[in-house]
Design a protein that fits this description.
alpha/beta, homodimer, Arc Repressor Mutant, subunit A, Rossmann fold, 210 residues, two-stranded antiparallel sheet, globular
Chain lengths: 210, 210
């Protein structure tokens, strides 16, 4: 069923999951699609449809058992099947990602980072080793890394990407503000801050006109 | 025409813009929707439709004049109408955003950051002043700040948000991994890294099955 799911639904599932985890911590044992919809400002029909991709646990009147829905979503999103990743570029953004504790619960294990700055190569940042960028290919191969996360300046992103691909990564998560050229079989997910900013600005302009 | 544009189209416009700026730097004077579509791995009909929301400059056979299309997109996205923003939380992510030079070209002017750490309050980071978080309301009012960017840990995000709202911001860009409650007239854009990660993981799983 994974094949048919739309990108939009897919990108809402982690949002549901994080809300449910919040509610579980607050002691909420059952939750309805309508409640979820209200809390997230979504339509309840949409929420029901989205959740039905990942779980068949919803019951009329009672709603979903929070714990079961969380586990169904985690399974569906494959968060229990951990993938290894490395970060290239241990600047502020790289450090922020290294220090973000939440990734392991999303099935992402950041193993190490690479940088070209000799002063930090060989040190630990946020308890993760920082290696010299010259060793990308070697270490990616050795440690069977699936995902390369690029947080370098734009002008170094393509060369970095090429090294990751040579090392054998299957996917690139690109935070550098530039487009990358990769072989057909490599997956690229671009993280473009400007995209969110455009949506925000547009909503803001509309609200100022009202 | 702004009213009818879909969120999906809207979030692609900055991607076109950044590609066009790259091409302009490379000296490309004219570019076709088909070329843009190929470079971004999108459908050319989609690209033509998206661009028609912002520009009527495309001509058969010739395509778009790069410079004109860039300027049309910038106007449409209101990037020439600068909005002031502050960042709350000068940790690694806050610093990464403070140091990101690209925001001004997207119409976002980050004026200052706030933190609770007395060691950095009163200093400059990336040439921007860091103020004590106690002063959020006062300074947001005084300096007419439109957007508050929250990069605090999750547990402080709601209190931070409340202060920003009291100070008079119109929009919140939330990077903290938690949901926020705001008055109806306030716009919230949540930046959820897990969302992108889910899309990436799902594509990766599908490709491994093939």
């Amino acid at each position: 069923m994974n094949k048919q799911i739309s990108k939009r639904t897919l990108s809402r599932l982690p949002v549901y999951l994080s809300l449910l985890q919040e509610k579980e911590r607050e002691g909420v044992e059952y939750i309805s699609a309508t409640t979820i919809a209200n809390l997230l400002d979504l339509n309840h029909v949409q929420v029901r449809k989205d959740l039905s991709c990942a779980s068949s646990a919803g019951r009329p009147k009672v709603g979903y058992e929070t714990k079961v829905l969380i586990s169904d979503l985690q399974n569906f999103l494959d968060y229990n099947n951990t993938k290894n990743a490395v970060i290239i570029g241990a600047g502020d953004l790289g450090k922020a990602l290294l220090g973000y504790g939440g990734f392991t619960s999303y099935g992402l294990n950041i193993v190490a980072a690479f940088d070209t700055n000799p002063e930090i190569c060989g040190t630990l940042i946020k308890n993760k080793p920082i290696y010299n960028a010259e060793k990308i290919e070697e270490l990616v191969k050795e440690q069977n890394i699936d995902i390369g996360i690029i947080t370098t300046p734009a002008q170094f992103a393509q060369a970095t990407c090429d090294r990751l691909v040579k090392g054998g990564v299957k996917a690139i998560w690109n935070f550098a503000p530039t487009s990358l050229t990769v072989p057909k079989h490599i997956i690229v997910q671009n993280e473009n801050m400007a995209t969110s900013l455009a949506v925000l600005s547009n909503k803001l302009n509309e609200s100022l006109k009202e």
